[in-house]
Design brief:
alpha/beta; two-stranded antiparallel sheet
């Protein structure tokens, strides 16, 4: 059974990671155009670097929650049959133990060099404009996919969604593309679709199984169900003939 799990801001919010985007469309008092677009970075690079430097520092104060840990437990059981795709730029999945993971919107703990394209691991501030460890140019920025930029590994994600038997959406709004279109793609190729969200999302088609509640409550229960079903299937295959 091949499973693709898409996670969004909701799963990290339960660990204390701010979602940043408020009801008025501002991110901590900043407009999206100012801190989450290439144009905003061109206008005021120092302000944008400070914004993401603060977010990077804040990661040390949060921990993976029960949902992250449950998905890591599922990965240990399913191995290559599970792929987690996250829209989040934090490292909570990794710290929970997940290894087969795609950060489609980049990672706070990486920098991106505007000169050579390198994506080095990075934990320090970027506002002082440090040199790139690969080419030496002082053109590093956060390795975060901004509005108007192409997310990472779209071909690999699409191939996995098309091939999966179960597609699960955890803590996502269903409003940001291309991720918002994955449920329809998975369903079109025959996958069972599951939503585990605080409230129903704006998905373009209904999920086969939609559960409302906290990710920390819903995900461990769902993982237990998957593992129990997998164990039962193995038992059926191994049952001796009479």
């Amino acid at each position: 059974m091949r499973i693709v799990v898409l996670t969004g801001a909701g799963i990290s919010a339960e660990s204390g990671v701010p979602t940043f985007r408020d009801a008025d469309g501002l991110w901590e008092g900043h407009s999206i155009e100012d801190v989450a677009t290439p144009e905003g970075f061109e206008r005021d690079p120092d302000a944008v670097q400070r914004f993401y430097d603060l977010r990077r520092r804040a990661l040390s104060r949060v921990r993976p929650n029960a949902a992250h840990l449950a998905l890591a437990r599922l990965e240990r059981a399913l191995d290559d049959d599970l792929l987690i795709v996250t829209q989040n730029v934090d490292d909570l999945h990794e710290r929970a133990g997940t290894r087969r993971l795609i950060h489609m919107h980049g990672e706070l703990r990486r920098a991106l060099c505007g000169w050579c394209g390198a994506r080095p691991a990075w934990d320090d501030d970027l506002e002082p404009r440090p040199p790139c460890p690969v080419c030496g140019e002082r053109m590093l920025r956060p390795d975060v996919v901004w509005f108007g930029e192409m997310p990472y590994e779209l071909d690999r994600i699409e191939q996995a969604v098309v091939a999966c038997d179960v597609f699960v959406s955890v803590g996502t709004s269903g409003a940001v593309y291309p991720a918002a279109g994955y449920v329809a793609l998975a369903a079109a190729f025959g996958a069972r679709t599951v939503e585990l969200n605080l409230e129903p999302s704006d998905a373009i088609i209904p999920f086969d199984d939609a559960r409302a509640g906290r990710a920390g409550d819903l995900v461990p229960v769902w993982v237990d169900e998957v593992l129990a079903a997998a164990a039962a299937e193995r038992g059926t295959r191994k049952a001796p003939e009479r």
